[in-house]
Amino acid sequence: MKKEFLKFIKNYIKENKMSVITIIGAGMMGSALSFPASDNSHDIRIVGTPLDKDIIEQAKLTNYHITLKRYLPDGIKFYSDNEMEEAIKGSDLIIGGVSSFGVDWFLKEVLSKIPNSIPVLSVTKGMIDLGDGNMLTYPEYYRKYTNPYKSLNAIGGACTSYELADKDNTHVCFCGDDINVLRILKRMLETDYYHISISQDVRGVESAVALKNIYALAVTLAVGISEKKEGKGVIHYNSQAALFGQSVREMMKLIKILGGNEENIVFGAGDLYVTIFGGRTRKIGVLLGKGFNIDEALDTLKGVTLESVVIAGRAATAVKELIGKNKIDRKDFPLLLHVDDIITNKAMVDIPWDDFEIEREL
Ligand SMILES: NC(=O)C1=CN([C@@H]2O[C@H](COP(=O)(O)OP(=O)(O)OC[C@H]3O[C@@H](n4cnc5c(N)ncnc54)[C@H](OP(=O)(O)O)[C@@H]3O)[C@@H](O)[C@H]2O)C=CC1
Ligand SMILES: O=C(CO)COP(=O)(O)O
């Protein structure tokens, strides 16, 4: 164990003290974590990014979070980005609440200001494509450009922010290098509704929950296709189920190629389910399924956090690189490659149903 965290762990175990948890990035998910944090009686600070001014201003006045559309727990102290250093001082844990679009801001403007003795727990889902067929999870990306002694952990799993705020039962996985740090983070945040597995397989957990965004877009194409044919409100499940099954198959292959354990499909498939029904990604899948091209769909959804488009492009670039090097077979990824065609080449939706069929001889 790195010596920086011995202090953190000893203090925590000795005093079992209520901690100071500082959430940086006042979006919906980061802010929703204030509910399990508050139910564990921690002191909570929320720091807005330069883009979160409206959220912080309103929360300071009324405690109401304008995008989460919920009142936050009492007693939270709110800070704007220029007050970040003051908020970090005395913290026991920093939660990184930015989306994929804020990862470089978090790396440059936040991580360097966090002392090595304070662990970081990030909610951001996504991966970086290295151009050679390999990809990095965000904790690995942060690790590459930051002090090697920083404790970088992340949360994967199925969890919509507004349902966490409503204290609906939720099961997530905290991942990181050090199991003892993970055990403490779990103790700090678990409640009777926020259930936490822990895992040192950062690649496996983080790739599973990042990849699900691509496939949530893919499955919800079927929702748009049936709405286009029969009108809103008419729901068909066969085609969604076929796409869900193919998604799970491709995700498992990708998790393995990326070096994670395939058993993380439990977190990826759960997350896929919740995102299909309750995520923002559904909005773009449905529009594309209805016949919008990618530009029209993105234009219609301006201002909505849509990470699926980014991760689909990055994963497809990596997969095409590996196909080019004959390391993998393009026949294994028909759905990913179709989503990429829709996004990169502005193709219209034309699900390659026959390519999902297999023949397994024993
Ligand atoms: N691990 C988990 O359990 C879960 C994780 N997530 C993930 O959490 C992340 C945040 O999601 P969510 O809170 O719903 O999204 P929001 O859009 O509500 O919040 C995103 C946050 O990132 C900030 N941000 C966006 N772009 C930039 C930028 N260029 N520079 C600096 N900051 C930026 C936002 O500012 P602004 O509000 O002004 O845009 C905001 O603080 C996503 O990666 C999502 O996939 C989601 C659900 C569960
Ligand atoms: O990751 C999520 C739920 O676990 C939320 O997904 P969206 O970004 O599509 O809303």
TrEMBL record:
Residues noted as binding NAD(+) in the record, renumbered to the chain: G25, A26, G27, M28, M29, G30, R280
Domain Glycerol-3-phosphate dehydrogenase NAD-dependent N-terminal intervals: 21-175
Top-level EC class as recorded in UniProt: oxidoreductase
Protein origin, superkingdom: Bacteria
Signal peptide residues on this chain, from the entry's feature table: none
Enzyme Commission number(s) of this protein: 1.1.1.94
UniProt-listed Gene3D superfamilies: N-(1-d-carboxylethyl)-l-norvaline Dehydrogenase, domain 2, NAD(P)-binding Rossmann-like Domain
Entry's Gene Ontology BP terms: carbohydrate metabolic process; glycerol-3-phosphate catabolic process; phospholipid biosynthetic process
Family: Belongs to the NAD-dependent glycerol-3-phosphate dehydrogenase family.
PANTHER family: GLYCEROL-3-PHOSPHATE DEHYDROGENASE (PTHR11728), GLYCEROL-3-PHOSPHATE DEHYDROGENASE [NAD(+)] 2, CHLOROPLASTIC (PTHR11728:SF1)
Full protein name: Glycerol-3-phosphate dehydrogenase
Organism from which the protein derives: Anaerofustis stercorihominis DSM 17244
